[in-house]
Amino acid sequence: MEKNTVVRLSRICKSFGSENVLNNIDLEIKDDQFVTLLGPSGCGKTTTLRIIAGFETPDSGEVYFDGKVINDIPPYRRSVNTVFQKYALFPNLNVYENVAFGLRVKKASDREISEKVREMLRLVNLQGFEKRDVSTLSGGQQQRVAIARALIMQPRVLLLDEPLGALDLKLRKDMQIELKNIRKKTGISFVYVTHDQEEALSMSDTVVVMNDGVIQQIGAPIDIYNEPANAYVADFIGESNILDGVMERDLQVRFAGRSFECVDRGFMTDEPVDVVVRPEDVDVVAPEKGMLTGTVTEVTFMGVHYEVIVEIRGFKWMIQTTDYVSPGQFIGIFIEPDAIHVMKKSEYSDMFGDYSSYSNELDQLSENTEEEGRE
Amino acid sequence: MKRGILQRAAAAPHVVWSALFIIAPLIFVLYYTFTGQDGSFSLDNITRLGKGNYLMIFVNSLCMALIATVICFVIAYPAAYIFSRMKKKSQKLCILLIMLPLWMNFLITTYSWMTILEDTGVINTLLGLVGLGPVHMINTPGAVITGMVFCFLPYMILPIYSVMAGIDPKLLEAAADLGCSPVQIFMKVVWPLSVGGVISGVTMVFVPSVSTFYISQKLGGGTFQLIGDTIESYFTGTAVNYHFGAALSLILMVLILISMAVMNRFGDDEQGGALI
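YS: structure for the whole thing
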C-alpha cells in the first residue's frame, strides 16, 4: 500500500539578507519514514527543518501538512515536534517535568501525564531518572530526555536537528541504533538533519543530499551511494575517484587513456561525462594484468584496509585494499564493469580533482565546522 | 601548601577591609543600641522606639520604598526583555545608556531633579509657556518616589537584563514547539528563568530606597520624615544621640533582612537562580 504523504515542500525559497539559503526545494515526507537531510554546513538543511517546524517562513513556495498549506500556522499549532541540536532542555525543570512539559501545556490530567511520561522514559531507557536535575545528566542522557519530550506529543513527524552532533563516537553509534529502534516502535516519521554521511546512510530510508540550498539527489542510501546523480554527490558520499570521460557508445566509456566496458547506457555518442570509481571497487593486480598501471605514492593503514594513493597518468587515484603494497611500487589495477558509474556533466564536474592534495585531517576539519552561525 | 598560603595572603586585604568597615561598624551599632548615654547596658533605646511616631515613620518608609520598587519593576522588566532580544550591538548601547546616570554623582542627580520639579523649575516653566500650571510637584511623596525610581532603576534593569540575556533562544523555540502560545512561553519559560534576576533587582532597589535620606530631604523638603532622615538626624542633627540612632538602624536592618528572607523564599519556589 502506498504510504500517505504527511509533509510536502513545494518550490520553497528562502534567503537571509542577500544570502540565498534555499532554492526551489521540493520534498515529500511520507508516513512511517526515516528521511535524512544530508549536506555540508550552510547547505540549507537546518533551514529546511526549521521551515517544517514553523520557526522560519519561506519567502516563496508552500509547506503542506496533510495536503493543507501551513505556511502561516505558528509552530505551536503544528503536529510536528523538534529535537534540538543542543537539546534545549528547560534548566529549571527536572527530567519528569521536562518530558511532561507539552502535556502540561495541553492541560492533560495528572494521571495521563504520569502514565505517558513513564512510558516515554521507558522508551528512551531513562527509568528512574524522573527526579534528576537535567544539568546533572550526561550529553547522551540529555539527548534522550529531549527525544522523550518531543515524542510524548505524539507528533506525525519528528524533526531532529543534528541530535547526535555533540556526542562522542561510541555513544553516537549506540544512539543511532536506538533512534532507529524508537522510530520503528513508534511509527513516527523522522526528518533527520546531519552532515555525517555514514550516519545518513546507515539510518535512513531516504537520503536527501543538499548543497548550496539545492537538493542534489533524493534516494535510498544504496542508490545514493551506487548511483550518485552528479560529481558533488559522488564526492560528498564516501570516497570516490571522479574522472573526465567520454561515452563512446552504450556500455562503453573512455577515460584514463583507454576504453572500459561499463553498464551505463542512454548517453549520446561521444558525450563528455564524469566517471566515478569507488576506491573499494578497484582491485590491485600485477602490472602486466592491470587495465591501468601506476606508481604507489602513499599508503595509510586504516585498520580494516589500506588506503593507497596511486598515480596513473598524472591522476592520483584512491584505492582501498586489504593487500599491502609499498610506496614506490609499480602496480596494476583492475576495474569490473559494474564498478564504473557514469554521470552526466554538471556544474560540479570540474570542482573535484584527484587525491593529490588529500588529507584526512582536512576532511575532518571541514566536517566539524557546522552551521553554528545561523540565527 | 605554599600555594595555599599565597592564596590566603591574596585574600588578606579583603578580610582586613571587611573587618574594618563592615564588621566593626556593625559591632558599634550593636554596642550603641544596647547602652545608654552613660555607657551602661540599657534597653531604653529599644523601648523608646514604641513611643512617638517612629512606627508611622517605619511604615511610611516601607510603603514609599515598596511603591518605588514596584514602579521600577514595572518599567524594568519589559525594558530588560526588549533589550535582551535586540541585536548584540543595540543591546550594548542600551545598557550603556542605562548605566550612564550611575556615572554621575548621586547628589547631583538629586539636585537636578530639584531644578526639574521646583515650582519655578523646568517642567513648570514649560507648562507656563503653554498657559498651564504651575503644578506643585516638589516636596510631595510623588517627587520623592520619582527621585528613588530614577536613581535606583538601573539596579533593577541590570540584573533582570543579565538573566534574560542568558536565556537560550532555543528554549523559547522548544516551548513553542511543544505547544506554547507566546503568552504561555512567557509564563512557563521566560518568567521562571528570569525570576532570579527580579529578586536581585527588587532587593537592590528596595534596600537603598527604604534607607535613603538624601532623596527625601531634597525632593521631600522635610515635609515628611522617612526612617533614613530620622536616623541621620540622630547622628548629625542638633539632637545628636548615637545610641537611639543605632537602635533605629538596627531595627531597619532587621526589617530589611526579614524582607530579603521572604523574597528569597519566594524565589526558591520558582527556581534557585537568585543572584544575591
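YS: worth flagging: The two ends of chain B are 32 Å apart (CA to CA).
IM: good catch. Also The longest helix of chain B spans residues 2-33.
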